[in-house]
Design brief:
It is built from 25 helices and 23 strands. It is an alpha+beta fold and 789 residues long. The strands form 4 sheets. Strands 15, 16, 17, 18, 19, 20, 21, 22 and 23 form a 9-stranded mixed β-sheet that branches. Strand 13 and strand 14 form a beta hairpin. It starts with 10 loop residues before the first strand and ends with a helix. InterPro entries: GAF-like_dom_sf. This is GAF domain-containing protein.
Length: 789
């Protein structure tokens, strides 16, 4: 007999057979002799153990009188049905059970000695409230539906978990109150049914031990493994976070229960119709494997690997079943697939298409290490689960498309979230008012009276550095070719070789002078058309062959030229741009909390950014000029952080590059318009174009009356035109000096006149490059390359 008590119960439980004994007393008085004599004999034995009528609380009495109790219960537990029915005596919701049928005993024996039977997902709270509901139903005659489906999860002898639905019969129980019980009013009952989770309320109305539950109940189980497993699968598939779908092997355990195969494993692949490929979904890479792809990420679905074996799956959307992989290898023309499965220990398998509206979405893979475990007969069970898998995969594809669109929106277009609402509104108007008889004219997207902020961190002398690295690589390549020619054996091509050597030396001499616009292309074309054919068609001695081999191994695959110094420069540029853009993007998330505004940045030879703030961009939020000032201070602080980030990177870069920082202050509001042809925002109006002119020319300008650039490495230059702007930024600088971010010295000067623009002034101040000012840890060049890739 299994016994387990929950901590508290409104009941004092007394097991009694008094109702059955009363029925025996009626039978003993009947005229049917064999029935009467049998009842009298049972009653005679019962008289020796009065607790069977009055009530048992010492459960050892049940253990000691198992035979007699079995006879008392014989009419309820027919011997003819004991091998078929799964039945026992119990108290509802309590794990008190005894007098099992033979089938029930066998199920518990197969589960093992360590198995303990308890109701699935049934805790102390549910136990207490359900017992209270029993009282409401049986004593107060209150019609309350409290019996949700209950299950026992019991493993079989092979470890496959089976699910049994629980049914209770409470005809042989009676419920009576004690002096501790509380008489309930209709108001009390209404309060209880509105507060299921308030356990203290339930205990106040039904104090522990305040009622007597006398009698016994009967529990009947029926095997609902398939139905329960499908329900569990459906619940898991409906969860929004499908990443947890296969945590703790949930998916495999469900399929093992449905197919009753302990060694069953589950895989899955998605079908990409655009490329006609099977793809393992990266989102579930560590959770759901694929036995078809195994180590590959994707495979062409019509290649030799699948062959004609998958014709039914791809064209007819029918499962592909192999009940015996070894036999399949012997009889099939597609031995490659069979051997691929056998190498993974797979002896039988089912590959079932998941389709919706006639379109293939993916393939569910079921495999077993035993031959004939999976076959064309039990493969039909997939019909029970495929509808749920179809909806889940279709939802996954839809979510993936939405995320792809979001990535395109974020990475490849200029529709920033702050202005997305206006594009959405116009698109919604188009969608709702679409008329097939005439073209819909889209309204222009314009934001008026917005304040611009512009800033940049530029890589100092990037063009000169780029040209210098190109020259170094070209000289190295020409020198390598000359060395090869110097080691060539004398032959009939001697005159031609001497001419080519002369031309190569002439080209190398040209590189001692400033690089012309077409020099690189001219040398590259000459080498490819004149030199490489000679090397490939001329016999060489061993030394020359070794030099030629080394030369061709050194060539870059894409350009066919030497790419050592230029690669260092390009990598350094990319690393700086990526790191600085990352700092800016992260800080921009914080800046949006100040006030929603439009933001865009560009990677060129450095990182530029434009900000536009104003009421028209966020019409639902009141705008105040204070937000503009906050954003200006944020911009200055962010440029300081970007400067510090670069300072930390410098010593790890493969090519040393300095940067200069600049802020352009423009206090007059302007309008920005979305240019449909260019798919980007631009300032609107002739007057506002002055702002764009200054932006494009200011970083190359000089201090008035000198040849010195207004920008300088490790310093931030702030360009402005009004006294109020000067006073504002001097306050910000003083604040950042106080925080030990900027150095005490401040330079102020006039900027040379630009075409159509004069009267500009500037402030220049240096960032303090102390390690303590930055949380950036030391990093190696290899770390940077890994990050870049």
């Amino acid at each position: 007999m299994d016994i387990q008590f929950f901590k508290e119960s409104p009941f004092t439980t007394i097991i009694s057979f008094h109702k059955l004994i009363e029925s025996f007393e009626e039978i003993a008085l009947s005229d049917v002799d064999y029935r009467s004599n049998y009842a009298k004999a049972i009653l005679k034995q019962i008289e020796l153990i009065p607790e069977l009528r009055t009530g048992i609380q010492d459960y050892s009495v049940i253990k000691e009188n198992e035979g007699l109790i079995k006879n008392i219960l014989a009419d309820l537990f027919p011997t003819a049905l004991t091998q078929n029915e799964i039945k026992a005596v119990t108290i509802p919701f309590q794990n008190i059970s005894f007098n099992y049928t033979e089938r029930f005993k066998k199920i518990l024996k197969n589960a093992g000695d360590e198995f303990y039977m308890e109701i699935r997902d049934f805790d102390d709270h549910q136990f207490y409230v359900n017992n209270c509901c029993l009282i409401l139903a049986y004593y107060y005659n209150y019609n309350i539906d409290f019996n949700k489906p209950f299950f026992y999860d019991i493993p079989d002898e092979e470890g496959v978990e089976k699910h049994y639905r629980i049914l209770y019969n409470a005809d042989f129980m009676e419920i009576t109150p004690t002096e501790k019980s509380v008489e309930l009013t209709q108001q009390d009952i209404d309060q209880l049914i509105d507060n299921y989770n308030d356990i203290e309320l339930w205990k106040s109305k039904f104090p522990p031990g305040s009622w007597i539950l006398k009698g016994f109940g009967i529990v009947s189980l029926f095997d609902a493994t398939t139905e329960s497993a499908i329900s569990t699968l459906k619940s898991n598939l409906l969860k929004p976070n499908t990443k947890s779908l296969d945590s703790d092997n949930i998916l495999e355990n469900i399929f093992r229960s449905i197919f009753k195969i302990p060694s069953l494993k589950v895989g899955f692949i998605i079908y990409n119709p655009e490329e006609e490929k099977f793809i393992r979904p990266i989102k579930f890479d560590k959770q759901i494997t694929s036995f078809l792809l195994h180590t590959d990420q994707e495979v062409d679905c019509k290649n030799a690997f699948f062959g004609c074996s998958f014709e039914n799956l791809l064209d007819k959307n029918e499962p592909f079943v192999i009940s015996n992989v070894k036999k399949f290898i012997e009889e099939s023309t597609n031995k490659h697939l069979g051997e691929h499965l056998l190498r993974q220990g797979i002896q039988s398998c089912v590959f079932a298409p998941v389709t919706k509206d006639g379109h293939l979405l993916g393939v569910i893979e079921l495999v077993s290490e035993n031959a004939r475990d999976l076959n064309s007969v039990n493969a039909t069970k997939l019909e029970l689960v495929l509808p749920y898998l179809t909806d889940t995969i279709d939802r996954y594809n839809t979510d993936m498309q939405h995320q792809i669109e979001a990535i395109i929106q974020r990475e490849y277009t200029t529709i920033h979230p702050s202005v997305y609402w206006k594009f959405r509104k116009e698109s919604q108007n188009y969608f709702q008012n679409i008329n097939h008889t005439k073209d819909y004219i889209f309204k222009e997207i314009v934001f008026k009276n917005v304040f611009p902020l512009y800033g940049q961190i530029d890589i100092k002398g990037s063009s000169e550095h780029r040209n210098e690295t190109v020259k170094i690589d070209l000289k190295s390549q020409l020198s390598a070719l000359l060395e090869i020619f110097d080691n060539q054996e004398a032959n009939s091509n001697l005159v031609l070789l001497e001419q080519r050597k002369f031309e190569l030396e002439s080209l190398r001499s040209e590189l001692d002078f400033p690089l012309k616009a077409d020099t690189e292309q001219h040398i590259q074309r000459y080498i490819e058309e004149e030199i490489h054919p000679i090397l490939k068609n001329t016999k060489s001695n061993p030394k020359s062959e070794k030099l030629e081999k080394l030369y061709f191994e050194t060539l870059d695959e894409k350009t066919g030229m030497f790419y050592q110094e230029r690669k260092k420069f390009d990598n350094a540029m990319s690393i700086i741009n990526k790191r600085l853009a990352t700092v800016l993007d992260k800080k921009q998330v914080e800046a949006q909390q100040i006030y929603p505004h439009y933001y865009e940045r560009f990677k060129t030879d450095g990182v530029e950014h434009n900000l536009y703030i104003g009421a028209s961009i966020s019409p639902t939020k009141p705008f105040d000029i204070m937000y503009l000032h906050n954003l200006r201070l944020w911009q200055l602080q962010t440029l300081c952080e970007m400067e510090l980030e670069h300072h930390q990177l410098k010593e790890s870069l493969p090519y040393e590059l300095d940067v200069t920082s600049l802020i352009l202050v423009f206090s007059s509001p302007l309008s920005i318009r979305f240019r449909m042809d260019e798919k980007r925002f631009d300032v609107d109006g002739t007057y506002n174009a002055r702002y764009e002119v200054v932006k494009k020319r200011i970083d190359k300008s000089h201090i008035k009356g000198t040849s010195e650039r207004i920008t300088e490495k490790e310093k931030i230059t702030i360009v402005y035109s009004q006294n109020s702007e000067e006073a504002e930024y001097l306050k910000y600088i003083k604040y950042l000096q106080h925080k030990k971010i900027l150095e005490p010295a401040i330079e102020q000067f006039e900027v040379e006149d630009l075409q159509g623009v004069s009267g500009l002034r500037a402030i220049r101040v240096k960032v303090i490059n102390n390690t303590s000012n930055s949380a950036v840890k030391k990093i190696t060049y290899q770390d940077l390359l890994d990050e870049l890739n």
